[in-house]
Design goal:
The chain is of the alpha/beta class. The chain has helices at 8-15, 21-33, 43-57, 59-70, 80-88, 94-103, 130-136; strands spanning 2-6, 37-42, 74-76, 109-113, 127-128. A 5-stranded parallel sheet has the order 3-2-1-4-5. The two termini are 14 Å apart. The mean pLDDT is 90.
């Protein structure tokens, strides 16, 4: 079973059905339901997902999708240690540095999935798009 960290953008693709990217995430969530993949995301992602989805869906629907999401992925806290790591890291985008710092808490992490691969160029992890990850596992 692969442990995979999901960046906020790919979670939003799935939740907001952003084509064509949501198709890959649909396939990944099916793998998760079958027990082939464990998904991880940072607590920071929940704030960002709410903020963005509320603009499109409204408060009630945004809360509902977060309630469903929290039951399907492992949530990693972003606290003082993660903030320190992000501040000391070599990421041009502070948010992505926080995501990387949270991902460091996952044992045997296979990859971080994102569409913003350039923001993770200094990552210690394998950085893949959802489509690339699926291609590796066919």
């Amino acid at each position: 079973m692969d442990n995979i960290f999901l960046d906020t953008d790919v979670i939003l693709d799935f939740l907001l059905n952003r084509e064509p990217f949501s198709n890959y995430m649909d396939q990944l969530f099916i793998l998760s339901e079958k027990g082939n993949v464990n998904f991880y995301a940072s607590s920071l992602s929940f704030n960002n997902i709410y903020y963005i989805s509320r603009k499109t869906l409204g408060h009630k629907k945004a809360v509902k999708i977060l309630q469903e999401l929290i039951d399907t992925i492992h949530v990693l806290n972003v606290g003082k240690e993660e903030i320190k790591k992000a501040l000391d890291g070599d990421f041009a985008d502070f948010e992505e540095g926080l995501q990387e710092a949270a991902a460091l808490n996952v044992f045997d992490l296979k990859a971080i999935l994102t569409r913003n691969k350039k923001d993770f160029k200094n990552s210690v992890f394998k950085i893949l798009s959802p489509e690339e990850y699926l291609g590796l596992n066919e």
